[in-house]
Specification:
Length: about 500
Amino acid sequence: MSSRLQILVVTIFLSSLGIAVALYKGLALGIPFTPNETTSIYRLGAKISFKAKDEPIKISLAIPSNQNGIKILSQETASQGYGYNIATTEQGQRAEWTKRESTGQQSIFYSVDVVMDKNHHVKIPDELPSDKTEENLDEWDSQTRDAAEALLAEVHSHSADDYSFTAELLKRVNEEKSSQLLSLFKTKDSYNLEKIVYKLLRYKGIHVRIVNAITLEGNRQNMNLKPYLEVYDGKNWQLFSLKKGKVIKPKKLFIWQRGGVSLLDSFGTENAKVKFSISQRLVPIKEMVLEDSLAKKSMIIDLSLFALPTSEQNAFRHILLIPIGALVVVFMRIIIGLRTSGTFMPILLALAFMETKLVTGLILFVSIVGMGLIIRSYLSHLNLLLVARISSVVIVVIGIMSIFSIVSYKLGINEALTITFFPMIILAWTIERMSILWEEEGAKEVYMQGGGSLLVAVLAYFAMSNELVGYLSFNFSELLLVVLSIIILIGRYSGYRLFELIRFNPVKEF
């Protein structure tokens, strides 16, 4: 296999691997591809108020479970002096509080944090055992039963299946003037629309259950859950609003209780009631996803930089920017043909500029190198050996940086205090190289390479300080394999540089 083909295979493999891992982290794990993306965490609170009767107390509240598109993050309770546990019953999951005895007005609080997650899917359970109610109307008086039978017969003639039957029934019961049945029930203390419709549907053998839900939006208090109906046709559950009929489940509709007999049961109490509240707060998506992935021991996250301590992560945020700077240097030198003083000096300068800010960094760099060249020219007259000369230049650079810091502090120029971020050894070597270049090639070449180094450093600074680039390089560090592939491909280029084309352009005239 030729080297050219090998490079092509290697670059395709590296790029594909980097992009595949990045897509997995973004699409499967949910890490956003752009910085500062936030999501809302909703805290749903239930406040149970009651009066204790100085006897054993037991409070049972239906509590929610995970559902499609909405994930439960945590559950909390505040019930001082009460025993607490979560029980799985025939009515679904319920929170239970118990106490041997208590008197007076009491309050118990239960809250759950949920978040919208389009990738979260769960299997919605089929009919719960608690939905098996009697399919007859014997408990109703004869006049009510006759009205119900007449209504159901009329609805049946105007429907084709369970869904259309439910929709037609809801339509009829909402037409108050034509609904003799509701008129009869409204004279009773037990009037409850969802339970009446539920019983009628069960009487007709339709697979139905009541669900109680709340909409995730805003900050609200003292709310009641809104009842809906779910009808099953043997394959799918369909949601029905008591007022609007058949509806598509809104994305922000959170079902607190699905099926079951009661929302709240209480023993040893008086006037027990439950009210709901909702609050909303914004959190970074990335932090939430990483916390969840680390908790689940996701291998690709557990073996990544995210598993390191925070201090080491912060160090790598800068280290992983170096390949971006290297790409800029490779492009500017190989494709553009710009000459620089050293290969990696512009990258290190760009890192320093990120700490000192660009204008301040340029002024400090030119000042230090300029003063260093003057002192270096004097040292050359002393005929020192290379090691001693370089060491002397390092000490001189340290001295210059110290003087700059002291003077700038006294003058109140705090920006100059960031001079310590410049790499001293690199500055010393830069001064030495430019001094030798001055002696061998002249001042013009020094200005060309020095100016080229600063230009590349500035371009690298803009690339490395870009918020999106910094975010992707750390959170999707596998994309650096794509950067490596590009550098390898550029490294194979051996044609004319852009500056060479400009330089030899007059030759075309001959």
